[in-house]
């Protein structure tokens, strides 16, 4: 069947993608295609509703047929502080939530809202209401020293009323699809389903039928209120092996069979959020298929599921083989809000494919607005007026030299070229991508190369950008060439002196000792002996990845970190436990809460609490501590300002300015291009209105 909304949809390279653009009914509403942005957190929520509204609106503009909110707390007893989600606690919350639906509708998509009572996942740190759940147990998902109380039958009746009130508010806010949420281990309804959390002896506990009673009742309540005005979705955590999942695969089938036609749509979620949003380091595209396959046959209602889908062929296969009716996406829609229309228009090489790094998730976990490695405009649509596909036309005839083609330089050159500036991009090596090419060669990080691939593909189509490989310019060369602006994006190098958080003045290192940096190892250098200490005072991924690489190559590796966990910051990307498991499986000996204090014939470490020292026999040490910006060219040019004739500005950007994540480097490139001819303004923010 052809697509009535998008006549351009069809075939690319001989493969039919039309099936992705078929309209599909969900209860009383009909979608324009099969692209479904499932609910996802974004760290903006009730604090930044206009920013969120613009972000969701851009997804709708990019072709998603359904665009959903994140978890929306239905009352103050479901208070997820410090997380920033949406709230429908009372009528005063409706305008913010309605603004999001309005922006989605403006671009022809259906608006979905995920209503949630977080049950024993909500420690209620703001409201200070004692948490509640099916049974008296410690709160889940955090170590807050708080327990939930067991709900009475009267509490259950009140909970249903709270959910009904939220449904009425969501309908008044204009939503077309209302979610009932029982997934990720986060929602009250899943806590009732879970034999681990539901120890009740009444009609809401015991048998699966009893444990599913509250879910059935809330679905029925929601259906009654929606009555032809909106569709009802059920988001259910499905079994299949993940240890934290409440239900086994068999129990999942039983629940779906029992409730089969009560919702208008099933949204199946595999395991806890960390499994559902697995990173590319730990799982491939379409990983959820095995757990979801076959569930569709238990219901006559359409089914949505996710899988970090970016390949249209994989999407078509999911539909044609009857696994899914909708291609669900959170991360692929974050990395490329225009994914649907790019597939429709056959612009597959312009898809900004998600790299599966979960920097987006870190926004939620750090209570800061969402960011994305691939899409620097994510979260900046309203705050800074950035758009994933459109940039303002250039403001002058200025010419720009971009030095260095890592993520910062590539993004700057591409965005400036799109604006219409004449750009010269020079790169010292033979490849584009800088650190992403080097890091993508490390275990599990292959997908990261997409950061360079996408930009390389777009640059290839821009006649405004001239690209020179194996080129290096001195300050004299630059001054002679007559560029108007210079962006120095020459990156950073890892330090070999141990300077870092733990040792701001560096380490005592015997000059005879072999010290390697991550740059050395990525360039192919290897320890001279078998025993290696990797010292990780960086706390993101590089330390553990290098330890894994060396262990796989047969080195005896000890990983030392002053933090309490290996790769501690990856709690924010939900990789912490997976990294630890992989490190253990690789046979790496881990020493947490210890700091390297000296490197000589042996590596000496000290306990960060007591200072007690210990020696580790090691032939070499790999120091993963801090990086030094490579910014000589910008300093040289700035020092010779009196000799500038055409030159008007010189700026170091990305890691050459302040070493950070790849996401930050990409963002810096975009920020440079956006502000080249503009007065830098602070970003917009919403200020709390004071009570009279
Ligand atoms: P960022 O993350 O800020 O983009 P990277 O280290 O990934 O930084 O990329 C820097 C890029 O700049 C690398 O590809 C490197 O080869 C290149 N480079 C470094 N110094 C020079 C230079 N003087 N001239 C041209 N290219 C350079
Ligand atoms: Fe994908 Fe990483 Fe962007 Fe998240 S931050 S959407 S995982 S590329």
UniProtKB/TrEMBL annotation:
MF annotations from Gene Ontology: FMN binding; iron-sulfur cluster binding; metal ion binding; oxidoreductase activity
Keyword annotations of the record: Flavoprotein, FMN, Iron, Iron-sulfur, Metal-binding, Oxidoreductase
InterPro entries xref list: Aldolase_TIM (IPR013785), FAD/NAD-bd_sf (IPR036188), FAD/NAD-binding_dom (IPR023753), NADH:flavin_oxidoreductase (IPR051793), OxRdtase_FMN_N (IPR001155)
Segments forming domain NADH:flavin oxidoreductase/NADH oxidase N-terminal: 20-349
Pfam families xrefs: Oxidored_FMN, Pyr_redox_2
Cofactor(s) for this UniProt protein: [4Fe-4S] cluster; FMN
Domain FAD/NAD(P)-binding stretches: 399-636
Entry similarity comment: In the N-terminal section; belongs to the NADH:flavin oxidoreductase/NADH oxidase family.
PANTHER family found in the cross-reference section: 2,4-DIENOYL-COA REDUCTASE, 2,4-DIENOYL-COA REDUCTASE [(2E)-ENOYL-COA-PRODUCING]
Protein name from the UniProt record: Dimethylamine/trimethylamine dehydrogenase
């Amino acid at each position: 069947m052809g697509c009535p909304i998008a006549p351009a949809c069809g075939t690319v390279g001989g493969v039919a993608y039309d099936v992705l653009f078929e309209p599909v009914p969900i209860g009383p509403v009909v979608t324009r295609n099969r692209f479904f942005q499932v609910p996802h957190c974004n760290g903006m929520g009730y604090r930044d509703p206009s920013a969120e509204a613009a972000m969701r609106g851009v997804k709708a503009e990019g072709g998603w047929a359904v665009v959903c909110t994140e978890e929306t707390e239905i009352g103050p007893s479901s208070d997820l502080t410090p997380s920033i989600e949406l709230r429908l606690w009372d009528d005063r919350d409706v305008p913010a939530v309605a603004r999001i639906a309005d922006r989605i509708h403006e671009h022809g998509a259906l608006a979905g809202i995920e209503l949630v009572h977080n049950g024993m996942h909500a420690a209620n740190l703001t409201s200070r209401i004692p948490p509640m759940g099916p049974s008296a147990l410690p709160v889940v998902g955090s170590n807050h020293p708080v327990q939930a109380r067991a709900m009475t039958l009267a509490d259950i009746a009140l909970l249903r009323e709270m959910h009904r009130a939220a449904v009425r508010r969501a309908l008044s806010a204009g939503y077309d699809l209302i979610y009932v949420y029982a997934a990720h281990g986060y929602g009250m309804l899943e806590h009732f389903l879970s034999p681990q959390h539901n120890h009740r002896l009444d009609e809401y506990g015991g048998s699966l039928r009893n444990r599913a009673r509250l879910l059935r009742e809330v679905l029925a309540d929601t259906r009654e209120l929606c009555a032809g005005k909106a569709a009802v979705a059920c988001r259910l955590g499905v079994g299949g092996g993940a240890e934290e999942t409440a239900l086994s695969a068999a129990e999942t089938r039983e629940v779906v069979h029992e409730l089969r036609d009560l919702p208008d749509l099933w949204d199946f979620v595999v395991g806890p959020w960390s499994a559902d949003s697995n990173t590319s380091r730990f799982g491939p595209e379409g990983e959820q298929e095995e757990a979801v396959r076959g569930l569709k046959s238990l219901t006559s209602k359409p089914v949505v599921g996710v899988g970090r889908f970016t390949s249209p062929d994989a999407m078509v296969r999911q539909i044609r083989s009857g696994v899914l009716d909708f291609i669900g996406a959170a991360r692929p829609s974050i990395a490329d809000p225009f994914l649907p229309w790019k597939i429709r228009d056959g612009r597959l090489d312009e898809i900004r494919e998600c790299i599966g790094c979960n920097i987006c998730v870190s926004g939620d976990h750090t209570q800061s607005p969402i960011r994305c490695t691939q899409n620097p405009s994510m979260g900046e649509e309203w705050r800074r007026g950035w758009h994933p596909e459109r940039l303002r036309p250039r403001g002058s005839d200025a010419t720009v030299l971009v030095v260095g083609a890592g993520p910062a330089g590539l993004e700057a050159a591409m965005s400036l070229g799109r604006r219409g500036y004449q750009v010269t991009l020079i790169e010292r090596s033979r490849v584009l991508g800088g650190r992403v090419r080097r890091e993508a060669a490390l275990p599990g990080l292959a997908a990261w190369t997409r950061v360079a691939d996408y930009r390389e593909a777009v640059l290839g189509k821009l006649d405004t950008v001239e690209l020179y490989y194996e080129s290096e310019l001195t300050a004299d060369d630059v001054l002679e060439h007559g560029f108007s602006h210079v962006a120095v994006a020459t990156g950073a190098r890892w330090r070999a002196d141990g300077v870092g958080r733990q040792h701001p003045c560096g380490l005592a290192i015997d000059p005879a000792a072999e010290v390697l940096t991550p740059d050395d190892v990525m360039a192919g250098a290897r320890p001279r002996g078998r025993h290696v200490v990797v010292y990780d005072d960086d706390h993101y991924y590089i330390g553990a990845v290098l330890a894994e690489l060396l262990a796989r190559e047969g080195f005896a590796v000890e990983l030392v970190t002053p933090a309490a966990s290996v790769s501690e910051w990856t709690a924010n990307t939900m990789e912490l436990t997976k990294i630890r498991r992989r490190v253990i499986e690789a046979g790496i000996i881990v020493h947490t809460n210890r700091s390297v204090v000296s490197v000589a014939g042996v590596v000496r470490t000290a306990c960060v609490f007591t200072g007690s020292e210990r020696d580790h026999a090691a032939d070499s040490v790999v120091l993963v501590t801090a990086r030094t910006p490579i910014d000589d060219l910008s300093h040289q040019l700035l020092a010779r300002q009196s000799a500038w004739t055409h030159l008007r500005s010189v700026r170091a950007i990305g890691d050459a300015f302040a070493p950070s994540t790849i996401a930050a480097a990409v963002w810096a490139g975009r920020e440079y291009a956006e502000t080249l001819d503009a007065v830098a303004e602070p970003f917009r923010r919403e200020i709390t209105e004071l009570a009279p």
